[in-house]
Automatic annotation (TrEMBL):
Organism for this UniProt entry: Neisseria leonii
Record keywords: Nucleotide-binding
Alphabetical list of InterPro entries matching this protein: Beta-grasp_dom_sf, MOCS2A, Mopterin_synth/thiamin_S_b, ThiS/MoaD-like
UniProt cross-references to SUPFAM superfamilies, sorted A to Z: MoaD/ThiS (SSF54285)
Protein name: Molybdopterin synthase sulfur carrier subunit
Pfam families reported in the protein's UniProt record: ThiS
Xref: CDD domains: Ubl_MoaD (cd00754)
Family under the similarity heading: Belongs to the MoaD family.
Length: 81
């Protein structure tokens, strides 16, 4: 059963998705499944292992359960020197 999830994109993911945020219906049960779904849609190049996931503005494990209306963000590594 699909549920609406708000997704926030940052840095390289924002560039590859061509947007900062979206609300999408998904059957993903956790951030790992959602990221895999988004990778297939947008062709994200970063592997999951290089990202942090956050649900409702709190960093979380990749297997954290998602509920209808959650806000999920995938945060790439920060670059700089």
């Amino acid at each position: 059963m699909s549920k609406p999830i708000h997704v926030l994109y940052f840095a390289a993911l924002r560039e590859q998705a061509g947007r900062e945020r979206e609300t999408r219906a998904t059957a993903a049960d956790n951030p790992a499944e959602l990221y895999a779904e988004l990778q297939s849609v947008y062709g994200f190049e970063l592997p999951q292992e290089r990202l942090r996931a956050a649900v409702n503005h709190q960093f979380c494990a990749w297997d954290t359960a998602l509920a209808e209306g959650d806000t999920v963000a995938f945060i790439p590594p920060v670059s700089g020197g």
